Amino acid sequence: MYNPTREQARQFFIDAWRKQRERLPLTQLEVIAADLVQHHPEYQAVIEDPDSALDRDWTPEMGQTNPFLHLSLHLAIEEHLSIDQPHGLRAAFEAHFARLGDRHQALHIVLDALAETLWRSQRDGTPLDGPAYVERVRRGKP
Fold first, then answer.
1. H or E segment at 36?
2. Residue 142 — very low, low, confident or very high, per pLDDT cuts 50/70/90?
3. I need a labelling partner for 124 at 20 to 30 A (CA). Which of 49, 51, 98, 139 fits?
4. pTM value?
5. Which domain of life does this protein belong to (predicted)?
6. Which of 9, 10, 8, 30 is nearest to 20 (CA)?
7. Mean pLDDT, residues 63-80 taken together
8. Do residues 86 and 133 lie in contact, with contact meaning Cβ atoms separated by under 8 Å?
9. Taking a C-beta distance cutoff of 8 angstroms, is the pair 129, 119 a contact?
10. How confident is the model at residue 50 (pLDDT cuts 50, 70, 90)?
């Protein structure tokens, strides 16, 4: 199983975005990562400054979202949707997409549900609850 360090995960997004901007060849995963950065212009300046981005901490007290965490959740969701795991996630997402007409907005519903699911798992010291994740997406609330 691939388990990158915080720095490696950040460097992956930095490199994918740089390669996209320089029109260099990208792997399929890098294409997805660069597309995610493209959809988040509010994070591009951070990603384009690797000297400060690699070591920087984002805390709730700062009032800012960690761009690398946010993008990593998006990347995980793309994988979840591609294999419909947990089962039913794709249908729940597609219902929001059809209702909203905006894929990125629908993805953020899934992202909020995934973040809540991860938080509960860490807080309780339990495995991820796939059915609860899907139900949170269906309801459209974490």
1. helix 28-38
2. low
3. 139
4. 0.90
5. Bacteria
6. 30
7. 92
8. yes
9. no
10. confident
CB 107 within 8 A of CB 77: yes
Cα torsion for 26, 84, 126, 61, to the nearest 10°?
50
For 63, phi then psi, to 5°, come to 75, 20
The DSSP H or E segment spanning 84 is none
Percent of residues in the chain assigned helix, strand, coil, to nearest 5: 70, 0, 30
For residue 9, give the nearest of 58, 68, 61 by alpha carbon.
68
Residue 112's contacts (CB-CB under 8 Å, 6 or more residues apart) are: 136, 141, 142
**Cβ(26)–Cβ(18) below 8 Å:** no
